[in-house]
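Memo subject: From amino acid sequence to discrete backbone structure tokens
Action wanted: Derive the backbone structure tokens from the amino acid sequence.
How to read it: Take the token row as a discrete description of the fold.
Attached in line: The record itself begins immediately under this heading.
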Amino acid sequence: MDAATTRPPRVQDSTTDHDRDLAAITQVIADIETGFNTKDQALSVAHFAENASGVSVAGVQVSGYDALLEAHRAGLAGALRDQFARYELADLVFVRPDVAIAHKRAWATTSDGDPIDVDHAMVALYVLVKEAGRWWVVARQNTLVQV
């Protein structure tokens, strides 16, 4: 078969009922939003694995839980101190029973939660793994949406 005409496989787990997983991952995103909005650095990284990696909207890669916590401490006390957001889980695919890819959209808000943006201003890609019965973020990539 010619590689140019071969359709790639669809990679999606259909062996497991993921209703509880969807709720758990939705809570992960909600906790990260709450951590951001309350400037609670520990909560903002509470669901990141010890060896997680994140890329900021500025393209800065930070690897390891301790480094991610320090980056959140600096950011939430500094440049992000007066910024607030609303997060929405936009897409979730379980590629294996214990691996999920999630897309999150974010809208800038006032401190009271009133929207500033008409449309989302950021999209983030999360890679999550289920370990010891709970979901952990192992990678996150943030990207600003150009208006």
